[in-house]
Amino acid sequence: MTPLIEVKDIGKTYGSVIALRDVSAVVNAGEVTCVLGDNGAGKSTLIKVLAGVHRHDQGQFLVEGEEIAFSSPREALDRGIATVYQDLAVVPLMSVWRNFFLGSEPTVGFGPFKFLDRRKGREITRTALAEMGIDLRDVEQPVGTLSGGERQCVAIARAVHFGAKVLILDEPTAALGVKQAGVVLKYVAQARDRGLGVVLITHNPHHAYPVGDRFLLLKRGRALGCYEKSEISLEELTRQMAGGAELEALAHELRGVAG
């Protein structure tokens, strides 16, 4: 099976700053690849390369087996790579259904006599959300009245509806409580089960492990390792994320100081 996305020894520098170095990973259809790391680990740079915001300057970036270097996010979107950023591209005062389309609204009429087809827009939005298992009371309500988790779910459903093959989610659970985070992870699993390849960026191994199939650990722009779920436990993933060896060395040092 050809991966939807594969990066081989990919790298990116900004002047003299090395943001990414020799990072390799794959994203398969119907799987979740989790990218974990603390702030400054290189997660944002990797997203920007995959999403077409920045061009990599080292290694190979393959989309469905074809080597590629995107020059804009539009190109990535045209290849089926949709990115949902942490700050969500939504207009809070606009209705849920208008946010769902945001520039691609259905219309009726021709030429200068084109009008928004509100009824069709509402129906499509309601159906697309229902297919993802999202039950909203009213798609006319402003998107700003939704909870953070519900907004994330609308953004995920939007990407799925508009034909995304790969869904990149930038810290979708970062600002959410336990219950809301659980809701978002449920929809991540739904997107995976519909055959999408999902890239889940997070610094929380407890959110990544239940839905992840593969885990790429980044630290200061380099890969600490890439593991299949069968190769690593949640405890070991958490230990590596927390810098287990460094913490042990620090604990040893502190014991020495105390002694």
Kindly list the characteristics that best describe this protein:
ABC_transporter-like_ATP-bd, ABC_transporter-like_CS, four-stranded antiparallel β-sheet, six-stranded mixed β-sheet, 25% strand, nucleotide-binding, Monosaccharide ABC transporter ATP-binding protein (CUT2 family), alpha/beta, Rossmann fold, P-loop_NTPase
* Main β sheet profile: 6 strands, mixed
C-alpha termini separation: 57 Å
Count of distinct strands: 12
Alpha carbon gyration radius: 20 Å
User: How do the helices and strands follow one another from N- to C-terminus?
Assistant: EEEHEEHEHEEHHEHEHEEHH
Silhouette: globular
Average pLDDT over all residues: 88
Q: Which structural class should the secondary elements be placed in?
A: alpha/beta
Helix content: 25-40%
Flag low-confidence runs: none
The H-level CATH homologous superfamily, spelled out, is P-loop containing nucleotide triphosphate hydrolases
Strand content: 25-35%
Question: How many separate helices?
Answer: 9
Would you give the CATH topology? Rossmann fold
What order do the strands of the largest sheet run in, or round the barrel if closed?
Answer: 6-9-10-3-11-12
What does this structure look like?
- The protein is of the alpha/beta class.
- The protein has one domain: 3-Layer(aba) Sandwich (Rossmann fold).
- 36% of the residues lie in helices and 25% in strands.
- It has 9 helices and 12 strands.
- The strands form 3 sheets. It has a 6-stranded mixed β-sheet with strand order 6-9-10-3-11-12, with helices on both faces. Strands 2-1-4-5 form a 4-stranded antiparallel β-sheet, with helices on one face. It has a two-stranded antiparallel ribbon with strand order 7-8.
- Strand 7 and strand 8 form a beta hairpin.
- Helix 5 runs parallel beside helix 6.
- The mean pLDDT is 88.
- GO terms for molecular function: ATP binding; ATP hydrolysis activity.
- Keywords: ATP-binding, Nucleotide-binding.
- InterPro entries: AAA+_ATPase (IPR003593), ABC_carbohydrate_import_ATPase (IPR050107), ABC_transporter-like_ATP-bd (IPR003439), ABC_transporter-like_CS (IPR017871), P-loop_NTPase (IPR027417).
